[in-house]
Input
Amino acid sequence: MAEETTNPTPAEPATAAKAAPAAKPTSPAAAKPAAAKPAGHAAPKGPPLATLTPELAQLQQHFGESIITPAPYVGVLVNDLSKLRDVMTYVRDQLGFDMLANVTAVDYIKEGYLQVVYHPQRSKGGQPITIKVRVPRGSDPVAPTEVAVPSLTPIYAGAEFQEREIYDMYGVRFEGHPDLRRILTWEGFYGWPLRKDWHEPYYEGDTKPFDSRWPGGHHELAEERVPWGDNVNYPPGFDPLNFNSDPDAGLYDSMLSGVPNAPIGPNGHAQQAPQPQGVGAAVSVYDRNYNTLADEEELQTDQIIVNMGPQHPSTHGVLRMVVKLDGETVTDLKLALGYLHRNHEKIGERNTWLHNIPYTDRLDYICGLANELGYVITVEKMMGIKPTERAEYLRVIMAELTRIESHFWAIGFLLNDLGAFYTPALYFITERDLILDLFESVTGSRLMCNYMRFGGVSRDFTEDQLAHARELAFDRIPRKIDELEQLLTENEIIKARTIGVGYLPAERSINYSLTGPCLRAAGVPYDIRRADPYSIYDRFDFEIPVFYGADVYDRYRVRVAEMRQSLRIVQQALNQIDQTKPGDIQAGKKAYNHRVPAGEAYGRVETPKGELGFYLVSDGGQNPYRYHVRSSSFINLNALKEMTVGHKVADAVVILGSLDIVLGEVDR
Amino acid sequence: MGLMGTGILKGLGVTLRHFIDTYAEDLKYILNKSGVQQPRPLRRQSPKNRGLVTVEYPRERLPLPENFRYVPFLVYDTEKQDDKCTSCGICAKVCPPQCIWIVRTEDPITKRPVPQPKEFYIDTTICMNCGYCAEFCPFDAIKMDHDYELSYYPTQEPHARLVHDKSRLTKPDTYHASIHPTDWHRELADRAAEEAKKKAAAEAKAKAEAAKPAGGAAAAAKPAPAPGAAQPSAPGPEKPAQADADKGSRE
Ligand code: SF4
Ligand code: SF4
Output
């Protein structure tokens, strides 16, 4: 924030470093990772420290052992917050980790600090590295942290939304962030929902299963459990009847006059936002026309702010694009997110490991099976188990069919956005539904499949189902993709509307942490199935389609090409699956009360939308201590502004469509 | 690239083909009267269909696959005239949104748990139809239903319409057999195998007893109540152990 001078910065690391050891005595014999590392030597009781990868060792050598120390389990800890930007610049420029895959935080409440975790990766491929910093939680539970973490937005543009999310969920203050406002909850939200001491309405217990269900489970409707009782926190002195804050004031102000956003008050709220300069005090800013053209000679056009959404057919759900228009040209764009926010991650931390699998279906509900795969392989990585051969094939078949149906959907709706209402969309939805028929007959549900298990899958394909899959993969879908191309690829209207629209060059895309088809349409052949192979993708013969236009048209073409490649994979898998043993779909014994060894892991898969990552921390119990979803839909939106500014407002709709977001995953 | 407009014409060719195919498909149904009845919706939405797909829902229905899952039901064993559920509580634990509520029956005198649910609720406002309860129930006592048309009069109490209690949940195993034939046959086979195993074990035991001086009469009497009594009581010892294990695991 602006009023924070740089003076306190040198003092911060001292407090940060001190806070960690100071917290140790307060948590004697804590089973959780103990704060054990001022000098980098393992405390006898603490969790095992990570062994450094060559890159991290190089980093440590460059910055010295006092600044970079091995962190528990994985990665390194940067002990001096003021050096964080230097470290990350070095990581990006010297080590070549040019893309910030993931940023998140963990609340170590017993130890008294919040840990921010960065996962930079190389767009050339390979595994990400893990870099962590710690900030004390602070004394006031509803104020943002006193110590600020330097924002990485100048180094990685893709950090913008992720840091805002951490601020929103954990109250970590990021210094130098261009727009540090709440992102998934609203301005004025009380408390930091992902902190361990924050309780949701209807709070019942920290972890499931709840004792009240059995053996004395007398049913009670959730609403009857005193919805406005102890579980809901209001700020002291809060009067709901007289609450009239405008949660969007900060948003509009920042767009109208370059005034920084509403400053964060001492209690963690945006204070009543200052009125934007040049706008009458009582005038609502939404429809206010105002004039920024300095040059009197020029044609005077009005700049207006238009809210597109949240209920707008173009936004693919409940998303609000706030665009500033000069005539019809977009000059600025901001997003209001969170209309579908349900704190998926908090739910995930209450759940047991197994409970989370069906919840991942609800992230990106267009491609639920791909999400399950990501979660399941991450947990398997932590548990050190491997699924059976047959399960691997079934997973790949399902995940690739999911990619095909998701791309059918994306292309169909892109055409809707272009104004070709529903004829193409329905043609492709037909094909998608045939794939969903297969999902339904195998898993029991069309979208919420809940199919993958730790170490396997829940059901085998019968012969009939295999025949259905073969019919689709060898006959129907290849034919239909040809038809799709006939219908669209050479269509002059489509070309006129999409070529050159939404351009974002490769370096910018990487810097924005863009992943998925959008990145590959910008000429970066980054696909996790090849860059950091998981499951059995290394056995199949397929290509990563790349186009170089970096515009909407090439995003469309990449998707078509990817569908063809996915088909190749499905075909090969269907041919090879006969060599596996039918019925052998679960490694080990099927269990419901899994325990995952203490530790942490970041696992990711290539979903149809891009990189879906799961950052999981286990304390050895039945429930994840931290469950973070790195959502590609959410992070890809970082780049929307740069893609859109300068285009006409009608193109903004198309550009958003070309990103192919699903709000279930954006808002989580 | 060719002439301007050829791309559009090519695309229009595709829509024309769809148009014709749809009529051709319909004609086939009309000519083949018998096809109108059963296989129509089946074929309507299948990879073989060439035209447009519209299953006119309330009039036509797609056949549900056996695995289809909707809000669960409890299986009633018509042979033994008893609930299959032993109120072991596993389904309540695996249920992700925690919408299963079970009151275990207690013996009025000894206060020991009786393997039978006294009350059993599923809050369908919360159930996410994940199927875990059916998947992890060790007694095949809870299954996912095919009845997806649940609707209620708003005048009814929310409890009455949205929270399924035991009487609302319980359905005979003949119903289960009719909607899940494969699953049912597997169950029968499992049960037969178990019975055979038990019998073999009992026989072996009887033989061993007979070999001992005590003689076979007493020993032979033992396995007799086994199919009736041992079946429900078998989970007895397992249940508390399970509960303890779970308790211990979550402090
Ligand atoms: S798991 Fe099966 S037997 Fe156990 S309580 Fe649930 S329905 Fe009853
Ligand atoms: S289907 Fe899933 S959510 Fe519904 S009662 Fe069973 S376990 Fe619970």
Chain A has two domains: 13-175, 344-667. Residues 389-418 of chain A form the longest helix (30 residues).
